[in-house]
Amino acid sequence: MKNKHKTHKSAAKRFKITGSGKVVHRSQRVRHLKAKKSKRQLRALKIDKPVEGRMKIKIKKLLGKA
Length: 66
Prior knowledge:
Layout: H1 9-14, E1 15-17, E2 23-25, H2 39-45, E3 49-50, H3 54-62
Antiparallel strand pairs: 1-2, 2-3
């Protein structure tokens, strides 16, 4: 019988895997100090950003999807 791997809970709270297999995360710099950021910038920061490269493979492994 193979060992089961536990999901990395902090990674599960920060990242999400889409239906097509992409890994997305929330933008940084959107929590506070919003007054000096333009509305256009804040709208762009609301969109989930994809994770690219080697990090994507590592995150999928932490979430048990690799």
